[in-house]
Amino acid sequence: MKRNVIAVLLFCLTTGLYGGEKVWYGNGDKLTVLMLTGLNLRQKPDIGGKVVVQVPYGETVTVLDDGNSPVPFTFDNIKGHWVYAEWNGHKGYVFDGFLSALPAPPVIDGGPCQTSMLGTHEIMHSYFGMLGETEIPVNDTAVVDGKKVPHFSAKFEFGIEEDIYFYENSVETLILLQSGANGYYTPYRMEEVFLLIQACGLLPGYFPLPVKSMSASDKTFGFSVLKKDDRIILSKKGQKITLIDSVHSVHLWIEETSEYLAEHEFPAPYNGD
Asked: Is residue 50 situated within a structural domain?
């Protein structure tokens, strides 16, 4: 019998103004590189600008003010801006579409960290900073549709909350990342979510943010892609990943079969009656 792992992440969005251009950061903010291959710091805000230095994945740049508005730019279907910044004594322009206010997930043996939502859950415990218990107790219960279900909840830094429900034939995980929660006010973006799940290994390797439907053979690393107005659905055997964009939030919904979890050594536990 199959177990489905269903994960929902909610990313609440806000925006600000910097140099007259609407962006999600301000002068002096420290942002992390989420591009696995590194991010080029250029002499001018243009893709043809001379590369000053390549900032490695996971490193932090500091936003500076050059007196001008950030220049809009789109790369690999991710919309953003060229922003003036400093890293390790070098100053120049970087593309903010591959930056985040969150710390970067760890890279293990030169590659992304995990290939399963339950693996990603373990990563959250290590790099987001869990507040309180560090293990996953399943002796707590919640009542769902009149039935007791083993349940685990946790709070993390950066305004992140998590709830896991262990059903007999499935595991449901709800993760909430909310601007304004626990003193964290930086917004979350759909592009950022896409890069984070790539960095966590849920999307092996790297491919551009999809803007149209594609078959699994269209260089999407084994995923077929269904693109609708407000959502992207990535599917392959045993795993389905859905990103849903709305006016104020982005949802990430993940479904995984027990066969897929067992294959990746992340079996879904069940301690029900």
From this structure: yes
